Amino acid sequence: MTSTFPDISLSTERLVLRPLDTDDVPALAAMMSDEQVGAWTGVPQPFTEDTARTWITEYAPAERAAGHGLDLAVAEFLTQRLVGLIRLTRTNWHVRSTELSYIVAPWARGEGYASEAALATAQWLFGDQKLQRIELRTAADNTAAQQVAQKIGCISEGVLRNACIARVRGEDGGWSEVRTDYIVWSLLPEDIEGADGQLADSGGFPGYTDWN
After folding, report:
1. In angstroms, rounded to a whole number, what is the distance separating the alpha carbons of residues 28 and 104?
2. 29-65 burial by CB neighbour count: b if 16+ within 10 A, else e?
3. Residue-wise pLDDT tens digits, 190-208
4. Measured between alpha carbons, how far is 170 from 28 in angstroms, rounded to an integer?
5. Would the CA dihedral through 196, 202, 206, 212 be positive or negative?
6. Taking Cα atoms as reference points, which of 67, 119, 65, 109 lies closest to residue 89?
């Protein structure tokens, strides 16, 4: 039975999802240093280019090799500019499930890239990888991430109370932690039937502010 994700590239109408490369170091560092990314994710802050290089050359390959998950760079098809990241974590190969999250660079928000990339990833996971469940967790106040989950067909399963640690900037410029709830979403193979049509009916990939 498969216990690791392959090194793959996926294409959509506007995007290419591919393994991270050292050429992505400057763009990844800039994206991960964004204020909202720092607030709603657990990525290290500050996220320097050295941190980005370690992530690309050591952390991401080790996580894939161990069977834990997969990181995919999301780049514009025409320009090849890095616009986001899809992450698969907490993969359980016996249950055939994984947790999916998404980050979109501040300069690429409002273009629907998160929903486009997440849907393509889900279709690949259910089709080629034969997974049976994808889980998403969004902080209770992260409405943009919740919009993406809804757009690709996810079903809200409930709330994990006080289970999320978010971060806020203090007056001194430093980060402090605050506790909040997680909303848990699931996506099953039957849930994405017609998801492409729903996105198309919205005029393509809608321009809400999806960042994570």
Report:
1. 10
2. bbbbbbebbbbbbebebebeeebbbebbeeebeebbe
3. 998 766 555 544 444 333 3
4. 24
5. negative
6. 67
Strands in 126-174 per DSSP E:
133-139, 155-169
What confidence tens digit (pLDDT) does each residue in 69-98 have? Answer: 999 999 999 999 999 999 999 999 999 999
Residue 18's H or E segment, with its range, is strand 15-18
Eight-state DSSP code of residue 14: S
Rounded distance between C-alpha atoms, residue 134 and residue 189, angstroms: 9
- The single-letter DSSP state of residue 132 is -
C-alpha closest to that of 12 among 109, 84, 71, 100: 84
Q: For 96-109, how does the pLDDT look when each residue is reduced to its tens digit (9 = 90+)?
A: 999 999 999 999 99
Of 138, 137, 116, which Cα lies nearest the Cα of 192? 116
Q: How many residues does the chain have?
A: 212
| Residues 156, 187, 209, 52, CA torsion sign | positive
Where do the DSSP E strands lie in 144-210? Answer: 155-169, 175-187
